[in-house]
From TrEMBL, chain A:
<keyword id="KW-0479">Metal-binding</keyword>
<comment type="pathway">
    <text>Amino-acid biosynthesis; L-isoleucine biosynthesis; L-isoleucine from 2-oxobutanoate: step 1/4.</text>
</comment>
<dbReference type="InterPro" id="IPR012846">
    <property type="entry name" value="Acetolactate_synth_lsu"/>
</dbReference>
<comment type="similarity">
    <text>Belongs to the TPP enzyme family.</text>
</comment>
<dbReference type="InterPro" id="IPR000399">
    <property type="entry name" value="TPP-bd_CS"/>
</dbReference>
<keyword id="KW-0460">Magnesium</keyword>
<dbReference type="InterPro" id="IPR029061">
    <property type="entry name" value="THDP-binding"/>
</dbReference>
<protein>
    <recommendedName>
        <fullName>Acetolactate synthase</fullName>
        <ecNumber>2.2.1.6</ecNumber>
    </recommendedName>
</protein>
<dbReference type="Pfam" id="PF02776">
    <property type="entry name" value="TPP_enzyme_N"/>
</dbReference>
UniProtKB/TrEMBL annotation, chain B:
<protein>
    <recommendedName>
        <fullName>Acetolactate synthase small subunit</fullName>
        <ecNumber>2.2.1.6</ecNumber>
    </recommendedName>
</protein>
<dbReference type="InterPro" id="IPR002912">
    <property type="entry name" value="ACT_dom"/>
</dbReference>
<dbReference type="Pfam" id="PF22629">
    <property type="entry name" value="ACT_AHAS_ss"/>
</dbReference>
<dbReference type="InterPro" id="IPR045865">
    <property type="entry name" value="ACT-like_dom_sf"/>
</dbReference>
<dbReference type="InterPro" id="IPR039557">
    <property type="entry name" value="AHAS_ACT"/>
</dbReference>
<dbReference type="InterPro" id="IPR027271">
    <property type="entry name" value="Acetolactate_synth/TF_NikR_C"/>
</dbReference>
<comment type="function">
    <text>Catalyzes the conversion of 2 pyruvate molecules into acetolactate in the first common step of the biosynthetic pathway of the branched-amino acids such as leucine, isoleucine, and valine.</text>
</comment>
<dbReference type="Pfam" id="PF10369">
    <property type="entry name" value="ALS_ss_C"/>
</dbReference>
<keyword id="KW-0028">Amino-acid biosynthesis</keyword>
């Protein structure tokens, strides 16, 4: 017999350094991967990481690390975890933190800080990260006492992932990470000032059900709140039961199947004519998890002027912020929709309305110009859709390529669409694709980028090559900041101030320098062939697509105009 | 419109910065802000006088404050019966002739002279905003050398008499 004898009782508490405690706390939060970049003030954390590994993704720039974490969070629903050093490391995160704040992505960001004793002395690599990030985080902490670290980390994950998700930052001075203590880990959170409400008010739900029964021109506007609330199924059931047409916001794409007969497309500045006119003409607008952003509403005076507005949002501050709301429902989208579905909903008599919208869809489809040689970016997007069966995870930056993707890719599943909506960050898409690929290693991940935006974070080719991540980079190359040029053409009498980029690297050679296979295509035939080959490979690939240089995104609501004043509605 | 908002906060480091930063970010205009500990240890109370355009902005002020993790409670007490007080220190130029006059002026305000110099006196006055404004106006002709005010702090009255038009900012409306 070789029965094991317990020789030592497990000590209740174990002495560990702040850095070890940090790793332990991450494990307790089930963190599988962290994105980061080392530096002086986080050396103790990285040393603990070396001895006690959690998968660490070494980006080539902190900004890319945080965008990757955003991509990871967006497609996995899990919090993205980021580590950066003090000073420049932390300030390089600012864009990503703001981006995550605007688009409600759950992040927990750790920054190193100079030692407690020298904080405030303008020490080497010191920056007031708490002050800098206060307005761009959901909450932030500076650790003053090591014994508080377990509680702070627990709270940070709780705050980042509950209610309206958002970024939370924890600033850890270097000496805190090296101090030794016997920590007490906590599991529950006590935050009297943070009690997000997820359950809808029954009376308001009834009121909405009554309004639905009486509506003649009802419309659902579904935003990213549906995705964060994992409520896509409920949304589909709700729309089908009531037979109410659906418009998506940019960030809400994928929350409702694009090929569904009730789907009218994306609303807003470059939304479909029918989606925008539906919002303009509706008599009942049911907003589920959208924040009535100005790019969606256009001029507020002309936004849904005839509609009774119902707004389901987990963040009470969003209700009534931009648009007067008649039926406010503070709740999680899933819970609110479930409560609605529990009622015997009377579908409105809206046949005429649906016919009218169908007619409008037929009469005003999205269109593209027939002028100019070269690849049509709209066709290219459709090809990417077809080759990937519409099932790829697609990421973009901001600008024309983003709008073409939103208009033409036709997302049919939730959490496959990763874009920088609120902040509109160039350079976001490529690193976000890396994060998405790490979350879903077996899925096809396509980073659609403009030639200008790609050049903002292209150093991450190094990371893709190192990890052999099969990310597909597709550059919509029009040798310009396309959207800026479009506005200059339209609103600044063709004065193309600093928006043309005639000098570019040879992207194929650039990819080659990293050992990544590159293609350059300049006709649609070539593009189709290369896409079929490249998108099915298990290697990273870069495709430089020479698109029509002057193609514009239409239709459009010009700045300051209302929903009903779209231009470029027809060829 | 002017709103008086009290904010009960956890006394964490940086909490004042958090609140004032929020006002800056959202372009809410603060007229005055006071902060101090409450009867409960670790909890402070701020009284903020804020100028807003309309009710929508007033509602946003409350909701945005409420979103802060360190904020426990936000109340707009503008339309409630309140007692509000502010303290002001006013250094007024004097000559032997005017000294007596000034004494007479400040007496009905129950203000006190707390420092006397050869050519000036410093007056301390406590009262609501209007009372302090009124006294400053009366003293201005004599020459105000320096003025320092604490900003208003306020409490709702123990019994709220016939407040019919109580403004409720609730999600239910």
């Amino acid at each position: 017999m070789n029965a094991k004898v317990e020789t030592k009782a497990k000590p209740l508490k174990q002495a560990m350094s702040g850095a070890e405690l940090f790793i332990e706390a991450l494990k307790k939060e089930n963190v599988e991967v962290v994105f980061g970049y080392p530096g002086g003030a986080v050396l103790p954390l990285y040393d603990a990481l070396y001895r006690n590994p959690i998968r660490h993704i070494l980006a080539r720039h902190e900004q890319a690390a945080i965008h990757a974490a955003e991509g990871y969070a967006r497609v996995s629903g899990k919090p993205g975890v980021v580590i950066a050093t003090s000073g420049p490391g932390a300030t390089n995160l600012v864009t990503g933190i703001t981006d995550a704040m605007m688009d409600s992505l759950p992040l927990v960001v750790f920054t190193g800080q100079v030692a407690t004793g020298v904080i405030g002395t303008d020490a080497f690599q010191e920056a007031d990260v708490i002050g800098i990030t206060m307005p761009i985080t959901k909450h932030n902490y500076q650790v003053r006492d090591l014994n508080e670290l377990p509680r702070i980390i627990r709270e940070a994950f709780h705050i980042a992932t509950t209610g309206r998700p958002g970024p939370v930052l924890i600033d850890i001075p270097k000496d805190i990470a090296t101090t030794v203590t016997e920590p007490t880990f906590v599991t529950d959170v006590h935050l009297p000032g943070y009690q997000p409400n997820t359950t809808p008010n029954v009376l308001q739900i009834k009121k909405l059900a009554e309004a639905i029964a009486q509506a003649e021109k009802p419309l659902i506007l579904a935003g990213a709140g549906v995705l964060h609330g994992k409520a896509a199924e409920e949304l589909l059931a709700f729309a089908e039961e009531t037979n109410i047409p659906v418009v998506n916001t940019l960030l809400g794409l994928g929350s409702f199947p694009a090929d569904h007969p009730l789907f009218l497309g994306m609303g807003g500045m470059h939304g479909t004519y029918t989606a925008n006119m539906a919002m303009y003409e509706a008599d009942l607008l049911i907003n589920i998890g959208a924040r009535f952003d100005d790019r969606l509403t256009g001029n507020l005076q002309h936004f849904a002027p005839n509609a009774m507005v119902a707004h389901i949002d987990i963040d009470p501050a969003e209700i009534g912020k931009n648009v007067d709301t008649h039926i406010p429902i503070v709740a999680d989208a899933k819970e609110a929709l479930q409560k609605l579905l529990d009622l015997e909903l009377t579908a409105p008599e809206a046949n005429e309305w649906r016919l009218h919208l169908k007619q409008s869809q037929k009469e005003f489809p999205l269109w593209q110009s027939e002028e100019e040689e070269g690849i049509s970016p709209q066709q290219l997007t459709k090809m990417i859709h077809d080759v990937t069966s519409g099932e790829a995870i697609v990421t973009t930056d901001v600008g024309q390529h983003q709008m073409w993707t939103a208009q033409y890719y036709g997302f049919s599943q939730p959490n496959r669409w990763v874009t920088s909506g609120g902040l509109g960050t160039m350079g976001f898409g490529f690193p976000a694709a890396i994060g998405a690929q790490i979350a879903h290693p077996d899925d096809t991940v396509v980073a659609i980028a403009g030639d200008a935006g790609f050049q903002m974070t292209l150093q991450e080719l190094g990371l893709v090559a190192e990890l052999k991540l099969p990310v597909k980079i597709i550059i919509y190359n029009n040798q310009a900041l396309g959207m800026v040029r479009q506005w200059q053409e339209k609103f600044y009498e063709e004065r193309y101030s600093q928006s043309l980029l005639p000098c570019q690297p040879d992207f194929v050679q650039l990819a080659g320098a990293y050992g990544i296979k590159g293609y350059s295509v300049s006709t649609e035939e070539e593009a189709e062939q290369v896409l079929k080959e490249a998108l099915t490979s298990r290697e990273p690939v870069l495709i430089d697509c020479r698109i029509k240089r002057k193609e514009k995104v239409y239709p459009m609501i010009a700045p300051g105009k209302g929903l009903h004043e779209m231009i470029g509605v027809r060829p | 419109m002017k709103r008086t908002v009290t904010v009960t906060v956890l006394n964490q480091s940086g909490v004042l910065n958090r609140i004032t930063g929020l006002f800056t970010k959202r372009q809410f205009n603060i007229e005055s802000i006071t902060v101090g500990p409450t009867e409960t240890e670790g909890i402070s109370k701020m009284t903020v006088i804020v100028h807003v355009e309309d009710e929508r902005v007033a509602e946003q002020v409350l909701k945005q404050l409420n979103k802060q993790v360190d904020v426990l409670k936000v109340t707009d007490i503008t339309d409630q019966a309140v007692v509000s007080r502010e303290l002001a220190l006013i250094k007024v130029l004097t000559t032997p002739q005017t000294r007596a006059e000034i004494n007479v002026i400040i007496e009905p305000f129950r203000a006190t002279i707390i420092d006397v110099a050869k050519d000036s006196v410093t007056i301390q006055v406590v009262g609501n905003f209007e009372k302090i404004e009124a006294m400053i106006e009366l003293l201005r002709p004599y020459g105000i050398k320096e003025l320092s005010r604490t900003g208003q702090t306020a409490l709702t009255r123990g019994s709220q008499k016939q407040v019919t038009d109580l403004k409720q900012y609730s999600i239910l409306k």
